[in-house]
Specification:
With 463 residues, the chain is an alpha/beta fold. The protein has two domains: 2-270, Purple Acid Phosphatase, chain A, domain 2, CATH 3.60.21; 277-461, 5'-nucleotidase,  domain 2. The protein is 29% helix and 28% strand. The protein is built from 15 helices and 25 strands. β21 (389-394) and β22 form a beta hairpin.
Length: 463
């Protein structure tokens, strides 16, 4: 006798709520189809993204309501849940969840774990197949530890759990917000794992990928696809005999009406919260991504002063628009600076600062359409500096070049190490290699750039 077991999942929604009513319709149809079968609904993290007003105003609890409404069974957390909220906000994020949260490597540094948190959960199919579901999230401890959390090593964690589960379950499923490379390596190292449902790196595996004994799957980003895993258990042979994974493009699915209505309610709630006036300004504030602006200079100066760094550099693309005169609300500030980006202090030599300044003033840098690393804007824009004076000229071609960089009217010492505060997005990837490779990084948490923008507006522009 054979039994089929079904898992339906989403990953990396990033609060792209325009897709969520279609997800709801897909899950509604799947649940109706599987009434007599064993099935569960999973989310693999980064459901929340504070780029959206609902997630910003309700601190992710609106996302939890939406998961509740569909009837999810298990979720794990992504870095957007883990490192874009204060310790208190994350600690209480899932208080009202009707589902279980599994994340085996999340540890509160005060030894007071949230009641909703489990390392793994045991499930049982209709015909008695025992399943363990484990959750893991990416170890961004430079952030987590400043917020009062720690992420244990995923490999050590999973080894301990597998040892503890030995002989008690038939199937092991991993909900992994670690990324495709880590998922593949886990499959190679741990023969006990049967299924890895992934996320974080936004990879789309339409029919899964087999690595050793495991099937690996993931459904891309923003829930344009929803994933399904089908396992076939043979009760006579007492083993899994087939593993299948698929994703479904739900672009043409209708919107589930109840979810549309719920989103409208959450939107109104968030607008009421974000409608609070932060400051009133007498004159409009202009903004252009490619030229110097007073608001961007003031923001850069303010962050340098507040963090105590010797110099600061922030790109104009962080602000999506200017402000009209009159009342400026929390919602206005969120709309104009929506990025979940924090300031970060790095240590750079004078030579490295010079290289960063040169790179940031190139046409290629200013017009670069960055996707990811928390940046939610259009282009990077021009870099604005504080604490250093950058004198530039122009080649006959029109390209700007750096003539001289001064600090307190003296040239930078090429070998001396300076503290520089900039957007944490530059500490990842290859946009500004000198920043990314800095051996000492101090992230300023939990404040986002927009929190400093609000204070800048109050202090420098308020009437």
């Amino acid at each position: 006798m054979q039994e089929k077991i079904y898992f339906y999942y989403t990953n990396d929604l990033h609060s792209n709520f325009g897709q969520w009513p279609k997800v709801a319709q897909y899950m509604k149809e799947a649940k109706a189809k599987r009434k007599k079968d064993s099935y569960w609904l999973f989310d693999i993290g980064d459901h929340v993204d504070r780029v959206h007003p609902i997630s910003e105003a309700l601190r992710g609890k609106g996302n939890v309501e939406l998961l509740n409404d569909i009837g999810y069974d298990l979720v794990t957390i992504g870095n957007n849940e883990g490192i874009t909220f204060s310790h208190e906000d994350l600690y209480h994020l899932y208080d009202e969840a009707n589902f279980q949260v599994v994340c085996a490597n999340l540890v509160s540094l005060d030894n007071n774990q949230p009641d909703w948190l489990s390392a793994y959960v045991k499930l049982e199919s209709i015909q008695g197949v025992k399943i363990a579901v484990i959750g893991l999230t990416a170890p961004f401890n430079d952030y987590y530890e400043l917020l009062g959390w720690h992420i244990d090593d995923p490999y050590i964690t999973i080894e301990k759990i597998i040892r503890a589960l030995k002989g008690t379950v038939d199937i092991i499923v991993l909900l992994s917000h670690l990324g495709i490379s880590e998922d593949q390596e886990i499959a190679r190292r741990f023969s006990e794992i049967d299924v890895i449902i992934g996320g974080h790196t936004h990879h789309l595996l339409r029919t899964g990928e087999e690595v050793n004994q495991a099937i690996i799957t993931a459904a891309g980003k923003h829930c344009y696809d929803v994933g399904e895993v089908i396992l076939t258990w043979d009760h006579d042979e007492n083993k899994l005999v087939k593993k299948e994974a698929y994703t479904t493009d739900i672009s043409d699915f209708p919107q589930e009406p109840g979810t549309v209505d719920k989103l409208q309610i959450l939107q109104m709630k968030s607008e009421n919260i974000l409608d609070r006036t932060v400051v009133t300004i007498d004159n409009p504030i202009e903004m252009d991504w490619y030229i110097h602006s007073d608001i961007m200079q003031s923001l850069t100066d303010f962050i340098r002063e507040k963090t105590g760094a010797e110099c600061a550099m922030f790109n104009t693309g962080l602000l999506l628009d200017g402000f009209p005169k009159g009342d400026i609300t929390l919602g206005d500030i969120h709309r104009i600076c929506p990025h979940p980006i924090n300031p970060c202090i790095v240590e750079l030599s004078g030579n490295e600062i010079t290289e960063v300044v040169r790179a940031s003033l190139t046409k290629e840098f200013m017009e670069y359409h960055l996707k990811g690393f928390g940046f939610r804007g259009e282009v990077l824009g021009r870099m604005i500096f504080s604490g250093i004076q950058v004198e530039t000229g122009r080649h006959p071609s029109g390209q700007e070049y750096v003539k001289e960089i001064l600090m307190y009217d003296k040239p930078l010492d090429n070998e001396k190490v300076y503290s520089v505060v900039t957007a944490d997005a530059f500490t990842f990837g290859r946009l500004l290699p000198e920043v990314a490779k800095s051996e000492k990084k101090t992230y300023i948490l939990p404040e986002f750039i927009r929190d400093f923008l609000a204070d800048t507006l109050r202090e420098k522009f308020g009437s």
